[in-house]
Design goal:
The chain has about 850 residues and is mainly alpha-helical. Helices cover about 70% and strands about 5% of the residues. The radius of gyration is 65 Å and the shape is flat.
Length: about 850
């Protein structure tokens, strides 16, 4: 029926479609195998071609060497024939010698050739054995690595087993630990009960002892209480007296440390200077009058030098304070000026003259005068006015500074100066500067009669100014010279322009009264206080003696000792009770923890046992693997020992052959030398011998070349054999995949009742595979129905294009570095400095 026919056709198409799909997948899988086999074959073929090329190259070299060796032998034989002919023409005796030596030489040369061949064979054997030994050692190393790894695993496995066994054992011990801990807690409780009983008894003894002591004290004589009160009062009086003495001593020390003053010798007063004051104010005074007045002052004034020899004691602060005397800071200049003013005022107040004052203008004026000194430059370029060298003050500079500050600039009415030498240590600290100023002021007041007629003293004491207030400014220059500038508060004669020189805003300066009288008053007070302290100390001693006597009579000390002993026993009993309670608490906590662990131990034990079984199983398997590897190692080691023994034998053979070859070569050399020593006048014989010698040299070289070529050819042949075996195996595998592929194609073609898919019509399914001398491509063609057509083998000759080798040309350059040489020119210099005692000081 038509309907049934359509249905049958549909089913057939569907079946064909399924079959076609399955066959296509099979063809694709077969094609993939063919491609893989083809690639393997291609690589094997390439390797084989390379080894074959090497073999051909080495074979060619061997043939060339053989040809050269044959030619050398032929030349040697020819030379021997020529020599033999020449020997016949020689004398019978020489000819016989030459023949005998020639026979011997021939025998040795034949021995050399045979030994060389044997040596080549032995060398090849040695090379093979060396390769086998390397492979065997590699195998042994690999096995050793595996054994090391397995030993590590065995060790780790054993550790795991031991650890699990210990953990299981610990779990088994928990019950025992709980029992032991329970017993310990019971014992602890007994110890606590015992310690508590002892503590109660000790407390009772303390209470009894305390009661007995209290009753004894109540019944003791009232003299003890009275004596104790007297002792307490005496000690308090002693402490109060000591405090007063210490306070007074501290006050004296503070005043002495802060006391900056000048001590005047007896008779050094205003009356002493009256004659000189009269001369100063006498406009008609002569130099002789000045000298006479100065001589009257000298005897008393000079006493002041020794009297003030230790008058300045620097403070720790001044010693530590670093200064730059060539460029004093404003704070340092003010501190020096205040120190100088306090020092001079301590003398002025004793004369009844007004104290020096300090203002910012007096400080600035002194600084301006110093700047004038330092700005001075003479015709030779020497800087700073040197008072000693110039023989006096820099009056011009002082007058310029005076004009700048509105002062009378008609002359030097202001400066007293000390030259370099007063300030020691280059003025590094404030203490150095103050010491220098102190020394200069002492010289001006008490040692000024040698050419200066005490005019510095009259200036500093205020005699020149006539009891008028003066303003002081002090400073130092870069030649270590000291400058004291005093400006009288007189607007008629000195301060011409008060707007430029301030006299109202004074800075703090001690009045010069000093602390001497305060110290004297305190010292007198201290004497009385020390007497009171001594009396109070004696009263304490007497009261203590009285108390000791009364206490001993009351016999209370023994009861006190009993109380002390009871209290010590109570403390020991308390410590023991505390320790017992602490131990009980700690052991109870441990017991509770063990009981908690006991609850969990059963569950843990099951898990630990399972883990132990697994670990033991793993350990046993690893130990089995280790034993197997150790067996492999023993076998490989034994094989290696056999190879080493064979190698030793071959090496001995090589040594013997080398020695034999050396001996033969030596014999050839000796025989050749003997032949050369035979004197033969026959030029033909000589020429024949020379030709023979040359032929022998060429033969030796050809023999060596042939030996090397033979060894190389053997190695190339071995490599070629290996590559050929790999190629043949790859070819067999490729042929097998092609047969399988053709079978699938054939099966596909047998089901051609309906057209199969056109996916693989007329397509090449196997890529070309090169043969030994050319590239061979095997292709299987199919028609449009998927049937295999005539398989064909396409042969394509491969041509390899020779490419010129790539070369890199690098430009070369030479770089020269010459280190500069430095010649240091030594500069010699020296500093000449006078000893401190030799440094001159001058007052101007």
């Amino acid at each position: 029926m038509p309907g049934n026919s359509l249905t049958a056709t549909a089913h057939a198409d569907q079946n064909n479609s399924v079959i076609t799909s399955n066959l296509t997948d099979q063809l694709k899988a077969a094609q993939a195998k063919v491609d893989a086999a083809q690639a393997t074959y291609n690589q094997a073929l390439t390797d084989f071609q390379k080894t074959q090329t090497d073999l051909m190259t080495n074979t060619t070299s061997l043939k060339s060497a053989q040809k050269a060796l044959d030619q050398a032998n032929q030349a040697l034989n020819s030379a021997k024939s020529d020599l033999s002919a020449a020997q016949k023409n020689a004398s019978p005796e020489d000819a016989q010698k030459i023949k005998d030596l020639g026979d011997q030489l021939t025998a040795q040369q034949q021995l050399i050739m045979k030994t060389t061949t044997d040596l080549s064979t032995a060398q090849a054997q040695a090379k093979t054995l060396a390769s086998q030994l390397v492979d065997g050692q590699s195998t042994i190393d690999s096995i050793n690595q595996q054994i090391t790894s397995l030993k590590s695993k065995v060790s780790q496995g054993a550790d795991d087993v031991n650890k699990l066994n210990k953990e299981l054992s610990d779990l088994d011990h928990i019950n025992q630990d709980v029992t032991s801990a329970t017993t310990k807690v019971t014992d602890d409780q007994s110890a606590v009960d015992s310690a508590t009983a002892k503590l109660t008894d000790a407390k009772l003894k303390v209470t009894t002892s305390q009661t007995t002591l209290d009753e004894a004290k109540k019944t003791a004589s009232s003299q003890i209480s009275t004596a104790q009160t007297q002792l307490d009062n005496a000690k308090k009086a002693q402490t109060d007296a000591q405090t007063v003495v210490d306070q007074t001593k501290a006050s004296i020390a503070a005043l002495e440390a802060d006391n900056i003053s000048i001590k005047l010798p007896t008779g050094y007063n205003e009356a002493l200077f009256q004659q000189l004051a009269d001369v100063i104010h006498n406009q008609n005074a002569t130099q002789q009058m000045y000298d006479d007045a100065s001589k009257a002052i000298n005897p008393i004034a000079n006493l002041g030098v020794d009297l003030n020899a230790n008058g300045y004691t620097p403070t720790a602060t001044d010693k530590a304070q670093q200064v730059n005397m060539t460029s004093l800071s404003a704070a340092d200049q003010l501190a020096l000026t205040q120190f100088t003013a306090e020092l001079i005022n301590s003398a002025r107040v004793q004369f009844g003259y007004p104290a020096l004052k300090v203002t910012q203008s007096s400080l600035d004026f002194a600084k301006a005068v110093i700047e004038q000194y330092e700005q001075y430059s003479d015709a030779n370029g020497k800087k700073t006015w040197d008072i000693s060298a110039k023989g006096g003050h820099y009056n011009e500079g002082i007058e310029k500074a005076a004009s700048q500050y509105g002062l009378n600039d008609a002359g030097n009415y202001y400066e007293d100066a000390g030259t370099a030498g007063y300030i020691l240590n280059q003025g590094k600290t404030m203490a150095d500067l103050k010491q220098g100023i102190f020394t200069a002021v002492i010289d001006m007041l008490f040692n000024d009669g040698n050419g200066e007629d005490y005019l510095h003293a009259t200036s500093l004491l205020g005699i020149n100014a006539g009891k008028v207030t003066e303003f002081l400014g002090v400073g130092t220059d870069n030649l270590d010279q000291i400058h004291l500038e005093l400006v009288p508060d007189d607007t008629r004669a000195y301060i011409k322009d008060p707007t430029k020189f301030d006299t109202t805003n004074t800075l703090p300066v001690p009045d010069g009264t000093g602390n001497d009288q305060k110290v004297k008053d305190l010292q007198a007070k201290l004497t009385d206080q020390q007497k009171s302290l001594s009396d109070a100390t004696q009263a304490v001693t007497d009261a203590q003696t009285n108390l000791d006597t009364v206490t001993k009579a009351g016999d209370i000390s023994k009861l006190a000792d009993q109380l002390t002993a009871a209290q010590g026993a109570q403390k020991d009993a308390q410590d023991a009770a505390d320790k017992a309670n602490s131990q009980l608490t700690a052991d109870t906590d441990s017991l509770n923890k063990l009981k908690a662990q006991q609850t969990d131990s059963q569950q843990q034990k099951v898990a630990k046992q399972q883990a132990l079984d697994d670990a033991q199983k793993t350990l046993t398997a690893t130990q089995t693997d280790l034993a197997a590897e150790q067996t492999k190692l023993a076998t490989a080691t034994s094989n290696q020992a056999g190879l080493q023994k064979s190698q030793s034998t071959v090496n001995q053979t090589l040594n013997d052959l080398n020695q034999k070859l050396t001996t033969a070569n030596t014999a050839v050399s000796t025989l050749t030398k003997q032949l050369n020593n035979i004197k033969d006048a026959d030029s033909t014989l000589t020429k024949a011998q020379t030709t023979l010698d040359a032929a022998q040299v060429k033969l030796d070289a050809a023999t060596k070349q042939y030996t090397n070529a033979s060894q190389n050819t053997q190695a190339a042949q071995k490599a070629n054999d290996v590559a050929q075996a790999k190629r043949d195996q790859a070819k067999e595998e490729l042929d097998a995949t092609l047969v399988a592929f053709k079978k699938i194609q054939s099966e596909n073609g047998s089901n051609s009742g309906t057209p199969t898919n056109n996916l693989i019509g007329n397509q090449t399914v196997v890529s070309s595979a090169p043969s030994t001398n050319n590239e061979t491509g095997v292709s299987i063609n199919q028609d449009s129905n998927g049937k295999t057509t005539n398989p064909s083998v396409n042969v394509n000759v491969a041509r390899t294009k020779k490419v010129a080798p790539f070369k890199v040309y690098a430009k070369q350059a030479l770089y020269r570095y010459t280190s500069p040489s430095f010649k240091k020119k030594a500069t010699e210099f020296s500093i000449t400095q006078s000893e401190p005692g030799e440094m001159r000081r001058h007052l101007l």
